[in-house]
Amino acid sequence: MTAALVWVVAALAAVFLLLLVAIVARRWLADRRGAADGAVRPGVEATLVDYLATEEDRAPPPPRTVAERRVLREVSLATIGELRGRERERLVTLAERSGIIAEAEAELRSRRLLRRRAGAEALRQFHSEASAAALSAALADPDLETSLSCAVALAELDDSAPIAAVLERADEACEERPGAAAAILVALGRRHPEALGEALDSERSTGLRRLAAAIAGELRLAEHAEALRAALEDPDDELVARAARGLGMIGDAAALERLLELAAAEDRAWFVRLAATGALGEIGDERALAPLERELQEGAWPAQAKAARALRSLGGRGEAVLRQALGSPREAVREHARVALED
């Protein structure tokens, strides 16, 4: 028993020693890398500033050392989000010529998870059309984080985005990662607005259609008004509410009759009626006066507030209804009318 205990203690000591050596070695390597990066950073930053400030197309010489390339990549990624137009294009060109884009593409094929994620995130920020093939291949990465970063990166490309594959990835992820799926759809809506029409198709999942309806409205994509009007007939209340809000933001007068029906539909969820009420006000058609006045007088508190704001947005006749409501025997009605008139 004593001999066995000695062996156990010796083994634990050996493991502890190995861990200590590994920690010290990693710390030494990190310090050495930090010193190398610090030595070249001022020169890399100055070169990059000069390159972006000049009108000449001549690129600076490529990085001569691993440290220079590493710092150039780090500084470029920290800078590119602040750049627009020609300056951004020049920085992407520099990243391509200096091998940074190729390095990030190679990271997508790494066995190491963190390297693949870093590569995908770098390519997402650079928006280089040259990386389309590598990003498309990595859409099937088993790591969801890497795959979704590649999908967003592809959606943000102007010419090379495989729309169908990107939409499929967003559809697969919308339940587990709705925020990432929304980021994909926002990028598509800005770069490829026609793609949101495909996302609104009835063959897509309800989750993806909900996101697409909200984004089509936020981006004021009037070309998708017909698809949003079709979504008003869906049995899913959340999708209907988002479609109604989107149509209000777009100002689609063709949806008015259906929105009037939904605003008074007792068989739909309260938030559907609320969304329809708000949309009526945003569209600004005076046919909405009567249902909005009824909602103000008889609705629940959130619906009353929405109706009062909608009436104010209708101009003179809506304001007249609000002024009349100031004399209501119901305190809540008077308060909503007062707040709306004071806005």
Describe the overall structure.
It is a single chain. This protein is mainly α and 343 residues long. The protein has a domain at 72-127. The protein is 73% helix and 0% strand. It is built from 19 helices and no strands. Helix 7 (144-155) packs parallel to helix 9 (178-191). It is elongated and about 85 Å long.
Characterize this entry briefly.
The chain is mainly α and 343 residues long. It has helices spanning 2-53, 66-80, 85-97, 100-107, 113-126, 132-137, 144-155, 163-173, 178-191, 194-199, 206-218, 225-231, 237-250, 256-263, 270-283, 289-298, 301-313, 316-325, 331-342.
Blueprint (SSEs and pairs):
Blueprint: H1 2-53, H2 66-80, H3 85-97, H4 100-107, H5 113-126, H6 132-137, H7 144-155, H8 163-173, H9 178-191, H10 194-199, H11 206-218, H12 225-231, H13 237-250, H14 256-263, H15 270-283, H16 289-298, H17 301-313, H18 316-325, H19 331-342
Helix pairs in contact: 1-2, 4-5, 5-7, 7-8, 7-9, 8-9, 9-11, 11-13, 12-13, 13-15, 14-15, 15-17, 16-17, 17-18, 17-19, 18-19
Descriptive key words:
single chain; 343 residues; 73% helix; elongated
Oligomer: single chain
Number of helices: 19
Amount of beta strand: under 5%
* Uncertain runs: none
Order of helices and strands: HHHHHHHHHHHHHHHHHHH
- Write down the overall geometry: elongated
